[in-house]
Amino acid sequence: MTSRIQILIFILLVSVLTLQAGAFKNAGFEGLGDWRFVTRGNGLIATFSDQVRHKGKKSFGVSIGSSSPSKKNDFAGITQVVELSASDKGISFFVKDSYTGLTGGYHWMEMLIDDEVIWESDVIGGDTEWRKVSLDLSRYLKHGKRIKIGRDKYRLETNYSITFRVFERRGVNRFGVQVWADNFTVLKESPKDPQNCEKKTIAPSLRDLLVYYDEDDLFQPVTKLEDFERKRRQILDGMRKGMGRLPDRSQRLTLDDFGIQVVNTQVRGRYTKKTIHFEAAEGEVVHAFLYEPLDKSAGKTRPGIVGMHPTGAAGKGCFESWPLCNFPIELAMMGYVVIVPDYPDFGDSKPYDFDTDRYDSGTIKGVFNHMTCVDLLERHPDVDPEKIGAIGHSLGGHNAMFLAAFDERVKIAVSSCGWTPFEYYETKKGRLKTWALPTYMPPLESIFHSDHTKFPFDFHEVAAAIAPRVFFSSSPTDDGVFPGWGPKAAESLISEFYRARGAEQSFQFHQPRAQHRFPWDTRQAAYRAMNDTFDYHFHGTLGLIAEGEGVEAIPVLKKSLANSDAQVRLAAAELLSTLNDTSGLDPMMKDFKAFSSQKDQLEHALEVARVLAQMKDISGYQLAAELAINGSTHGQRWRAAVVLAHLANIDDTAMQSAGIDPVSVLKAMAAKEQHEGVFFVLVDQVHKILQSRADMIDIFAIAKASKYHSEPAPGNRFSMAETFHLVAVRDRDKTWR
Fold first, then answer.
1. CA angle 140, 144, 146 (to 5 degrees)
2. Residue 147: what pLDDT?
3. Residue 32 burial (C-beta neighbours within 10 Å; 0-12, 13-18, 19+)
């Protein structure tokens, strides 16, 4: 009887010892389970080894073959959750590797507590025998770990993730190695000679998006539609705490109710540019450019866009002399109706007194103005009120996000270089205070003391508030204003939220290799996202088919070359050329011959000549050269300039043998063109189309000396042509886009 009791007590003691806090399970790898493998990449192999051990019969091993390639940041290891407290003082374990030599900086052994590396060693160090590593845990455990369980509620957590791994600092092709670890022990006394590395910077831990807080301020999972709606309301509440109250707007029934005053009108390209101002509220004026299409058809509407400028004294005028990012103008040329307002204290809204207005921040004043722009677009006769979007760069990039978060009428928000989570913005101490300037959000300092841990919202939450509508983010890798690694870190959280919302395709994240720019290719992707969102294309149904189906659309496009409508044939030929199909060449040559002989069809003839030039055909040169200088209409002259710019990209030998010189004509046009709108299109299209940087610089040098266009636009130091010339010279050795 006594023996049975002793056995039972022994079993209970073993069970208690196995489950006690502050101890590893399966510390020597003799049993099964408890450790979990963690890997990235395919080169490193993790396994439990019975060939090499420190004590007992097994150890943990990582190996990479001598001919197995790896990539930077690949790893393989094991992890286990261990309950620890301040009474636990350290960890010890034994390591051994198969290599000691001079080739360093590739394979590293690491120990992590949660996500922080607390020990690291290059495999070249030490020797190929077992060595003991002892690490101090006091600095990680003395204050405990708090887990946020509600808006302002926490609980003390005692479970810690302990990870041992081999990590690739640099990728390898032929550098095999084996590493073993064994006998992990939690120490109750501080080690005398700890081998901890310097304290590492831990990547910011962004707030979870798939939780909301309940009536008790505790987090609950977001699972149902009403949960998503509640989450959005809570995000907006947080934004208002950081920005201030958003006043109600008066209802406008017609466009006349806005009191629009047109200061200037300019016909330019395919659109009319109007300089306007209108009332946002009593005594509050919004200054804006309004770009309206020229090819209006009775009863036909199109999408409307609120375009938002970056930080620049010229405000909306930035786009007028900004060759690398004038997306409102590109959208206007594509047939969109675009309004570009000045942000408070920029452009024509200077000077603005933030201290005496009725708003708690410049940001919320901007949101109010931008929502009023949406009101205006809704009432515009050329705009489909169900097809309204927003696009912006830098300052405009986050303003586009803020507008879309607050205003569900905005079906797509495009943000270029406009955001990064607040903690990632703090690249140096005190940088977050710039967000608290009167122009932006003073409450972030006056209430939250520029402490990002206390901010009531973050940018990945703003992105979530836009769901399920489309959010297109361009966050370049080398953006020095809004560091690109911040959006990259938040991407997975936002994607997970959109996926749970049933709108996985609506979050479109792009990270071009660029600085604080909106590169050409990424802009084109943004326009495709807009076209898709609005079911709109400059070339109508054929354009949508070509964008959506790619080469699969070629049969339909070829069939359309025989359509009785000349515009349809033109669209089909151009779209085919974008798919590297020249089937439209012969039909376009026939159309060019027919339309170039009719005086009232010369503009269409030039459109055909443009498509021919894109297919490397020079048939339209003589007409374009003549009309560039002597065209009787603005439409003839700017279209001729576009044709010549495309022709200038054809091989010089072919041009010379044909006796044609489009660059010389463009230079003459740069010197002689008097109409401001035609001159702008000339310079802008030369920058967008012409591939020879040297020819571009020569044309711009003549344009900047023009006696007809020497005045800088309001808020700019240089004339438009001078700015284009400066950029062309600066980027002489870079990609032209």
1. 120
2. 87
3. exposed
Please name the residue ranges forming H helices in 272-326: none
- What burial letters (b/e) apply to 716-734, b meaning 16+ CB within 10 Å? beebbbbbbbebbeebeee
Assigned token pair, 298 = 């009775």
Res. 16: pLDDT tops 50: no
State whether 274 and 403 are in the same domain: yes
Q: What is the largest CA-CA distance in the chain?
A: 118
Indicate the pTM of the whole model. 0.86
pLDDT tens profile 184-237 = 999 999 999 999 999 887 777 899 999 999 999 999 999 999 999 999 999 999
Looking at the structure of the chain, the number of domains it has is 3
Residue 562 CB-density burial (10 A; 0-12 exposed, 13-18 middle, 19+ buried): exposed
CA angle 475-481-485, nearest 5°? Answer: 45
Of the candidates 736, 718, 732, which has an alpha carbon nearest to the alpha carbon of residue 313?
718
Tell me whether strands 75-83 and 302-308 are parallel, antiparallel or unpaired.
unpaired
Structural domain contains residue 663 = yes
* Cα–Cα distance, 486 to 477 (Å, whole number): 10
- For 595, the domain range is 584-730
Residues 6+ apart with CB under 8 A from 656: none
Which residue shows structure tokens 């197995």?
68
| CB of 519 closer than 8 Å to CB of 731 | no
Give the CATH number for residue 195. 2.60.120.260
Pair 404, 471: CB distance under 8 Å: yes
How far is it, in rounded angstroms, from Cα 59 to Cα 28? 6
Among residues 368, 391, 360, 374, which one has the least CA distance to residue 456? 360
Are 210 and 221 a contacting pair, CB within 8 Å?
Answer: yes
Mean pLDDT of 15-28: 66
Give, in degrees to the nearest 5, the angle at Cα 697 between 691 and 702.
Answer: 130
Within-domain flag for 240: no
Q: Are 43 and 74 in contact (CB under 8 A)?
A: yes
**CA–CA separation, 464 and 471 (whole Å):** 9
Residue 166 scores a pLDDT above 80: yes
| Domain annotation covers residue 238 | no
